[in-house]
Amino acid sequence: MPATKDKSNSPIGRETKRIDGPLKVTGNAIYTSDHNFPGMLYAVPVGSTIANGSIAKLDTKDAEKMPGVKGVFHRANIGKLFRVAPNSDYNAFSDEDRPPFEDDVVRYYGQYVAVAVADTFEQATAAAEAVKVTYNEKKPNVDTYLTADSKVKVDSERGDAQKAFDAASIKLDETYVTPAETHNVIELHSSVAVYDGTTFTLYETTQGVMNHRNVLCQVLGVEPEHVKVISKFLGSGFGSKITPWPQSALAAALARKLGKPIKIVLSRKMAFHAAGHRPRTQQRVRISADAGGKLTSIQHDYLNHTSILDDYKENCGECTKYFYSCPNVRITTALSRRNIGTPTSMRGPGAVPGLFATESALDELAIKLKMDPIQLRLINEPEKDEDLNIPFASRNLVDCYKTGAEKFGWAKRDPKIGSMKRDGLTLGWGMAGAGWIAERFSAEATVELRNDGTAKVSTGTQDIGTGTYTVLAQVLADKVGLSLEKCEVVLGDSSLPPGPLSGGSMVTASLIPAVAKAAQKAIGTLLSAAVKTPGAKYFGVDQKEMDYTEGMVHKKDESASAGIPFQQVLDSGNFKFILGKGSSESTFAGKPESSKHSYGAHFVEVTWQEEIARLRVSRVVTVIDAGKIINPKAGRNQIEGAVVMGIGMALFEHTNYEPTKGAPLNSNLADYILAVNADVPDLEVHFLEFENKDLNEYGARGIGEIGLAGLAAAIANAVHHATGIRIRELPIKIEDLLV
Amino acid sequence: MRDFVLLYVNGVEHQVSGDDAFLSLSDYLRYSLNKCGTKVVCAEGDCGACTVFLGRLNAPKSGIEYIPVNACIQYMYQLDCTHIVTVEGLKVDGDLNRIQQSMVDCHGAQCGYCTPGFIVAMCSLFEQCDKGEKSCNVTRQEVSDALTGNLCRCTGYEAIIKAAMSVDEKEYKRLDNLYPSQTLISAFKKHHDEPVSVKGEESEFFKPTDVKSAVEYKSNHPGVVIVSGGTDVCVNLNKGRIEPKNIMVLTHVSGLDELKTSGNTVEVGARVSLRKLEEFFQETLPEFHHILWVFGSPQIRYAGTLAGNIANGSPIADSLPFLFVSGAEVEVAGLKGDRRIKVNQLYSGYRKMVLTDDEIIVKIHIPLPAKSTKLKLYKVSKREHLDISSFTAAISLERDGDKISNAQVAYGGVAAVVLKLSKTEEFLNGKPFSLDTFRGAGEVAMKEIMPISDVRGSKDYRLQLAANIMEKFYFETADEKELVCP
Description:
Structural class of chain B: alpha+beta
Strand order of the largest sheet of chain A: 3-5-1-12-9-10-11
CATH architecture of the largest domain in chain A: 2-Layer Sandwich
CATH topology of the domain at 5-88 and 179-249 in chain B: Ubiquitin-like (UB roll)
Strand content of chain B: 15-25%
Structural class of chain A: alpha+beta
Helix content of chain B: 25-40%
Number of strands of chain B: 20
Oligomer: heterodimer
Largest sheet of chain A: 7 strands, mixed
């Protein structure tokens, strides 16, 4: 590897424009539903119009006679589809395990009961609407009040929390609720399936091409080598594209059945039914403290709804375990089944709803103690991970609080409710902490050095929009010492070396070691070729004396410029390219030596006009402790986007299931409200880049999810400061603030 | 009678007939032309991802006027004699245009899926420069307004706004330079006034060019769906709520695009866009201008019409409370001639008008309020912009010294139709202009309405708004000295 290198030249940490930007701004980036093939047919699923019951009769006669219709398919004629075997790691997992049409039971509104296929999208849509389904309907259960359906499980326990709580004089016992939220990714879920008689090529909206292939080969009952999954560009996912949804199996099964390419694009409405959502959570938090504010107990008992068949757990206690120093902690979890589609991960699963509860509770406790909420947090800052009893790899949460307080001007805060005014508006100032895991998935990558003087990195991961193409180009550029323009990145294809899922904010951290090793291997092979090629400049030199610096092959005892460009080595040996493979392990196996997380703090100002009940988020300062930021341009984008999504979470977002039919009522973008640009406040994002290399050599941790964690609590805390009203159920509605 | 739709896409002529004429523009682009840069995300005009430029002959027929529209709710039959420019058609000599470059530089594209729509909406802001419509120093507020109709889930908008702010208007190359307008103008002039009718497998559409044939067609085809801007009809088409056999398109009916003041009355032709109206009222009646501005996204305001908002007849139609209190009238044309109907007597039930089968709305007459009239219009919604109202109101009255007279009150979102609150008006008339009076009026108003609970607000919330909005009116219209505590 480079013996001497001017680090200021390193592309790592440099503000870098997205390398796929030009494709995206011209409409030339090809997403799943943009794939068209000769003879392609369109399929449109028929969703059930009940949420509980069974299919009594499926009448497809009229639909089949309609113009352009190639058939209507259902349980009796689609062909056998299988389930995915239970899998403990993340190589082949699905959230909705039941393959489409497995039985005639309907368990949620919009569950696919048939699928119409036609020459055009319009014809298929009309045919799907013409399918007549008779149901045996039962009353659905979409109740919002959650009770445990089975035994409560203990997530984590230390000390005797109940005893300490009973003995304490300062305590709090409150229940916090977060609603069902739908991801509403901008790109709708879609599948385009091509079958050549042996092999399936599936163009998918997926955050995991490898996982998608490993699931679909089982569902279709074919060997993994006969399924290839492609996802070159993804219109974001936020978790809703981590595991395959039923439309993918339908497209593949129809392509096999009809011998024609099949395209399915969900409607916005369908995406509310069978493409995952963040489940409703109901979290009872009991905390106690001594008079000085030291926590004596935390009990966090949470429930989340799940579907009738699948056990999706929203891990709300994720941060509670390690966030604060406390000798007595007990965290329990239970599921509550509903006639609703299967939930899935949504940006910051577990931690995001969990921190709404615990960071709101801390604020309430601070008020009881008449203490500044930052002070309360400082008093309870742990020295180690008390859950795992291991040191923290890098925890700079206190610096986040301090930096944030300074940038925000927190010292000027008057804690009295409604006491702060500006331009006739009442101000509310609130804050909250944030945490998110920092781990690695196993990953493999190859690096090629090519005879045209360029390099290429390939791995079976995907860029969900966060900037993976660009970040990997930066890593490759750093490792092979070439300019960014000479570095190509190939992703989004399951036939590449297995790369990580885009989930848990782990892609960058996971790939750095694998790409570094692959580059090292490629350079090693290059140097070997340099000394073994007869007639070449360094033929016969001992390989140990050779070196590689920024694209130049040279002897260690000479300067790089005295050497030869690496492509000359390839030319003289008549090699098109030299390839190195690298892999790295997941951090989930075995007992960790350190507790690895990213941290952050949000400071929020809201304005409140009591006369007309107008609440606005006017200012947010966010400080993030996530180690080295490889591309600050993309990094800021991630945090700003998360903060704006958090404003939506706090004030607008809520999937509303109608109780008599069980259908999501607001299943469109007019009624499911996302923040628009007019809702965006003054945003300030700061990164604290403390060095820690436990996870990889650059010390980079993930930043995709941390920005959303804790924000809703900071807003609710600010709302309390302005209005005196404590909101414990999201979203915060104007109705809640009218007194 | 011509039997195809004539349009240009990125400078190339297309003649569209048969079933293709009944596609949405976004489906036509994506499926028939394989131009997939235009993305479909909501298919109902809520998100702006499918924004494209629609170019039409301007009023003096001397140039092409480009407006941003949502391609998912423009159907091909609305697009006769238009030039559509998509994100693929914006490059300048094969290079990124200034705005595309700025979006790359500022990281305005993240996942990239909303990006094509943002690019077109942003270009449209610069396209308006020099036309007397916009000042050319683009302000943050103008950028924000221009992008109101575009949803992004990744970036938090900040980078996108920055991208627009860092473009110098002089560096933006206008569409007239990319697509010289002479060919387009002469083609459109030639074919503009030809009636068009296309039959598809299951439907047919007719594009008349004069009111008489429109009225005749309507009377001969009961159940015909009339489309102008299509911002509502096309949403219902996409959702499968309507499957019309006959469609009549008013885009080229002559005489319907006039907007003028006649005496003390503003006459608004049925084809005048909400956007044109918004500009018109900016000076004349800022209160109504504001309601038109928050009506919806630029894409909706450029395409939609006031006549459409009236004909659609939603109880939360943003324009109706004002039209109710101002005494506005619609002029309708029918087989038996024209007649005028007061807007507040136009509705017989939920989205039902008292028009006969042959009648179409041709004009709206809006009397301007007197200088002395105190008028306030309200739209209550969850989000800052781009939101469907949960409650709307218009309150207007005169003050004779201390006494209230000629009170006019209309509320929307509180019943199946917009309501004129006659008991509340009666209560107010003759009473002193005081907080107590308006509190009392609020009580009366609450009893006069029958709101329901839905996703946009609960019944109780709407009842409370009905009362509180009266107080708000008082505080906003009282003289400063009246507000000083004794």
